[in-house]
């Protein structure tokens, strides 16, 4: 399931609900991203999505994860709107028969979300507001999976 | 009436996020011309590097015809989450 929401979420509650009632899954991996204060440089993070389009684009990468790994299920919850430092901004959970596939799929989904997902991010700080683009490391992290796919 | 949506820095540059154009432009090219005639800086930015265009939530490359109910979104480079 993929959900965008402006309300804060509680990662523990999402994990409890996601893991419940899975007697054959064996492994659930999760990642929680938390908005950074950047030593006071960021007071508020503003995240804009294109409703409908953003979910559909994330859905394509979720389908790609399902093709690459044997997943029983996955969950992506992403905040939009105004986010304060310390608040969770993204939660990804993957469920699989074994841990390796759950870990890798979770890692893959996060690399995609950080570099290519249709969001526009603005940092509001003491010196004003600025739009942020992915860091070179974010692109490099995402490119790891491209290289892997080309290997026979 | 065609709907135009701007995201990210384009929204700040234009000072609006969403507009309905009536009568609707016949094509994306005409839509851009119409917006550029009102605001030259915005016109330039809409054709800027890395700006993608979505027609009814599908990315289109080059020009495309619009209908009265088209939704055209200008998507500057995405920042990721």
UniProtKB/TrEMBL annotation, chain A:
- On the tree of life, the source organism's domain of life is Bacteria
Q: InterPro entries, from UniProt?
A: MoaE_sf, Mopterin_biosynth_MoaE
Q: Tell me, what does this protein do in biology? A: Converts molybdopterin precursor Z into molybdopterin. This requires the incorporation of two sulfur atoms into precursor Z to generate a dithiolene group. The sulfur is provided by MoaD.
Protein name, as recorded: Molybdopterin synthase catalytic subunit
Q: Please state the pathway this protein functions in, per its UniProt record.
A: Cofactor biosynthesis; molybdopterin biosynthesis
Origin organism is: Phenylobacterium terrae
Q: What class of enzyme is it?
A: transferase
Could you list this entry's UniProt keywords, alphabetically sorted.
Molybdenum cofactor biosynthesis
EC number(s) reported in the record? 2.8.1.12
Catalytic activity from the UniProt record: 2 [molybdopterin-synthase sulfur-carrier protein]-C-terminal-Gly-aminoethanethioate + cyclic pyranopterin phosphate + H2O = molybdopterin + 2 [molybdopterin-synthase sulfur-carrier protein]-C-terminal Gly-Gly + 2 H(+)
**CDD domains xrefs:** MoaE (cd00756)
Family of this protein:
Belongs to the MoaE family.
> Can you state the subunit structure given in the record?
Heterotetramer of 2 MoaD subunits and 2 MoaE subunits. Also stable as homodimer. The enzyme changes between these two forms during catalysis.
| Origin organism lineage | Bacteria, Pseudomonadati, Pseudomonadota, Alphaproteobacteria, Caulobacterales
Give one Pfam family.
Answer: MoaE
TrEMBL record, chain B:
Taxonomic superkingdom? Bacteria
Give the protein name, as stated in the record: MoaD/ThiS family protein
Short name of any one Pfam family annotated for the protein: ThiS
Please give the SUPFAM superfamilies that the UniProt record associates with this protein. Answer: MoaD/ThiS
What InterPro entries does the record point to?
A: Beta-grasp_dom_sf, Mopterin_synth/thiamin_S_b, ThiS/MoaD-like
């Amino acid at each position: 399931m993929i959900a965008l929401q402006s309300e804060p979420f509680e990662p523990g509650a999402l994990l409890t609900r996601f893991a419940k009632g899975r007697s054959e899954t064996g492994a659930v991996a999760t990642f929680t991203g938390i908005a950074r204060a950047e030593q006071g440089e960021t007071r508020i993070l503003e995240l804009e999505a294109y409703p409908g389009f953003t979910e559909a684009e994330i859905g394509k990468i979720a389908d790609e994860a399902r093709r690459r790994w044997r997943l029983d299920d996955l969950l992506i919850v992403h905040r939009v709107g105004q986010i304060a430092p310390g608040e969770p901004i993204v939660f990804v959970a993957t469920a699989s028969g074994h841990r390796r596939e759950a870990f890798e799929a979770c890692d893959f989904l996060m690399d995609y979300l950080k570099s290519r997902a249709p969001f526009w991010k603005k940092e509001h700080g003491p010196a004003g507001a600025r739009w942020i683009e992915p860091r070179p490391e974010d692109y490099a992290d995402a490119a790891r999976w491209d290289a892997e796919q080309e290997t026979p | 009436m065609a709907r135009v949506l701007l995201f990210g820095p384009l929204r700040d540059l234009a000072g609006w996020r969403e507009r309905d154009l009536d009568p609707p432009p016949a094509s994306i090219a005409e839509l851009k011309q119409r917006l550029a005639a009102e605001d030259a800086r915005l016109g330039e930015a809409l054709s800027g590097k890395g700006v993608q265009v979505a027609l009814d939530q599908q990315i289109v490359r080059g020009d495309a015809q619009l209908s009265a109910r088209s939704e055209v979104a200008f998507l500057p480079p995405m920042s990721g989450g």
